[in-house]
Amino acid sequence: MVRFSVRRTAQVVSSIARKLPQEALRLASIPCMSQASSSWEICNRSRWKVPRAVTSLLEGKCRCNSFSTVPLEEVVVVVGEKEERIDLTQYPPHLVRNFSIIAHVDHGKSTLADRLLELTGTIRKGLGQPQFLDKLQVERERGITVKAQTATMFYNYGSGGIGSSPGRFLLNLIDTPGHVDFSYEVSRSLAACQGVLLLVDAAQGVQAQTVANFFLAFEADLAIIPVINKIDQLNADPEGVKTQLKTMFDIDPQKVLLTSAKTGQGLEHVLPAVIERIPHPKGVVNAPLRMLLLDSYYDEYKGVICHVAIVDGVLKRGEKIESAVTRQRYDVMDIGILYPELTPTGILLTGQVGYVVSGMRSTHEARIGDTLYQASMVVEPLPGFKPAKHMVFAGVYPADGSDYDALCHAIERLTCNDASVSVTKESSGALGIGFRCGFLGLLHMDVFHQRLEQEHGAQVITTTPTVPYIFEYADGSKLNVQNPAALTSNSGKRILTCWEPTVMATIITPSEYVGSLMTLCSERRGQQIEYSFVDGQRAMLKYRLPLCEVVIDFYNELKSITSGYASFDYEEAEYQSSDLVKLDVLLNGQAVDALATIVHRSKAHRIGRELCDKLKNVLDRQMFEVAIQAAIGSKVVARETIPAMRKNVLAKCYGGDVSRKRKLLEKQKEGKKRMKRVGSVDIPQEAFHSLLKTSKV
Ligand SMILES: Nc1nc2c(ncn2[C@@H]2O[C@H](COP(=O)(O)OP(=O)(O)OP(=O)(O)O)[C@@H](O)[C@H]2O)c(=O)[nH]1
User: Fold this and answer.
1) Distance CA 528, CA 364 (A)
2) Which residue, of 99, 163, 493, 575, has the greatest Cβ tally within 10 A?
3) What is the model's pTM?
4) What secondary structure letter does DSSP report for 130?
5) Which atom of ligand 1 is found nearest the CA of 111?
6) Which one of 224-233, 312-321, 408-417, 595-604 scores highest in mean pLDDT?
7) Could you give the CA distance from residue 466 to residue 437 in angstroms, rounded to a whole number?
8) Cα–Cα distance, 245 to 196 (Å, whole number)
9) Ligand 1 centre distance from Cα of residue 505 (Å)
């Protein structure tokens, strides 16, 4: 019996799609073949439906009535394809290489990953959609990688270079995100690797995330293969970039590879370099099993799927494993590699990276960084990962209060696949019952919002993001504030010190913009730490900045000042004491808790004014006058008024004398006074977003 994978199923679909397309397309909910650009799309859109479609269509051929009820893995189907059985025991650690592709945003990681998958025949040229490993809808729409993705490839290494003899190698490639919000994904991916391809755009040169990622790999003691990509561009300057790499990281120009992931130029040198320069995993095959849990997600059909790296030992289907954190035991029901889809192999050996399905009911049981070992064989746990640090918090509420249960379900499902979001329940006078969520950054928050709407159909209101502050009281107690509304002045306690988080920011910019950037950073309360030159034309600035000044609108400002030429990255730094105040927003004297914010005292007036102004533009006019105020405690620092909508009470008063008209207007005024007392203001969704831009200082 041969097991075949979804990948092979795609090949099956591909080869029979023309003969039997209608049924497959119907089950994949694609009306006609011309709408499906490739069989991969059919597979992706229908996931397990097409394989079932295929199996049921093949029933007649195979003369097996219960064909479609057999689990996919147990089915023997070979249609026009050479039968291939993957035997992982043929790949001891010295024939395995695990590597990540790291780079600044848009330097071509996912495109290079695609080319390498094609080169090794893992996906077919032309069949895979561009950026094959960017699987989420949000990744495709935004053209960014959000989740690190692993893919296994097999490569026939022929040349027998330094220290490696010819043979067939198993390569695990991890495509990582480039945006600073997702650098946690990068650091986690590096734990499963012994080396990296450090990609640099031949025209843009070294950028801020190149520096950050280089040091992540360097500190993890990984082999670094520098690759200058996009050499096909007209303004490519590979020699200049080599000099930058030498100056900044002491990289030998002789060791730099030159590629174009677009045209394929130079790609033939990449995988041989991986085999020759990246060491093989160091684990011990005969030692007790130790397996690092890298990531997990929830699949409707299979349950929790864990991505794992086998550090020592061997794991087979049917064995029992135990978690070092929860001490729960599980049966290994399915095990295999990502080739590039889930491909059962029945076994994973030392140094290999793959997936395990073990009957975990929720991803909360699958703790990222956990060590899994053979049940009852207690071993020394692996160091694991530092927990994800939440940089911004925001309230997430159902747009319609009655949708709370649906939102609850949607958030639960989504956090199963994105464990880096923290969720706690909260309630707001203005918005009802909802959740306070912690994110790795604003882009992460945006992506979460988009995924909630697109993947789970939830309509939500996200409140103004805030960073986590600490308030220290005179009695020695401390309050962690993730929601400004939680900071009440009537607690009776005197605030001694306010602490705000800071970051160490790296900015790389053409030299002519240095002056404007220094002004921007000092306006944002930044403290200059370092100023150096990358090469003759570009400088590197290091600033310590309050996190709240960075997360909101800093990046856009930086890009507009430098016409898009500067790049920016940051890492978490320590808390600093600061003069912070809570800025309340009052509508007709009533504080709207969801609009409260914490700001630096020196900026409170300005932010208050901008906020009132913004709200004036987004709030609809009511039948009564609406006063918008920003206040620190009982002191109002800014005010705007939205005049009442005035009904033309004189419309029916043709001619008539002045006293009659005045009487009508007086009567209208009385009515409005009454409405002011009883009326309530409707706050549209944009009002909450408006604060985002307001903190531009
Ligand atoms: N001219 C040229 N364009 C390339 C090359 N490689 C990638 N690109 C283009 O550069 C853009 C970004 O490529 P991606 O592969 O998405 O970059 P990435 O580094 O994965 O991006 P993030 O995941 O968002 O960090 C795309 O439009 C690619 O088509 C290349 O070698 N030459």
Assistant:
1) 41
2) 99
3) 0.75
4) S
5) 15
6) 224-233
7) 11
8) 15
9) 25
Interhelix angle for 6-16 vs 49-62, to 10°?
60
Distance 545 CA to ligand 1 centre (A): 30
Interface ipTM > 0.95:
yes
Q: What distance in angstroms lies between residue 231's CA and the mean position of ligand 1's atoms?
A: 12
Tell me the residue type at 688: F
Specify the pairing of strand 580-587 against strand 626-632: antiparallel
pLDDT digits (tens, 9 = 90+) for 341-373: 888 888 999 999 999 998 887 767 877 888 899
Gap from CA of 593 to ligand 1 centroid (Å):
43
pLDDT at 359: 80
Amino acid identity for residue 550 in this structure: V
Answer yes or no: is 175 a known binding residue.
Answer: yes
Report the C-alpha gap between 284 and 287 in whole angstroms. 5
Measured from the CB, is residue 392 less than 6 Å from ligand 1? Answer: no
Residue type, 67: F
Beta strands in 177-299 (DSSP E): 195-201, 223-229, 257-258, 290-299
Annotated ligand binding at 108? The verdict is: yes
The rounded distance, in Å, linking the Cα atoms of 356 and 336 is 7
Element (H, E) at 628: strand 626-632
State how far the alpha carbon of 595 is from the alpha carbons of 105, 229, 426, 450, 498, in Å.
33, 46, 15, 22, 20
Residues near 239 by beta carbon (within 8 Å), at least 6 away in sequence: none
Alpha carbon distance 161, 49 (integer Å): 45
Q: How far apart are CA 250 and CA 197, in angstroms?
A: 16
Cβ 110 under 6 angstroms from ligand 1: yes
103 is in an annotated binding site: yes
pLDDT of residue 163: 55
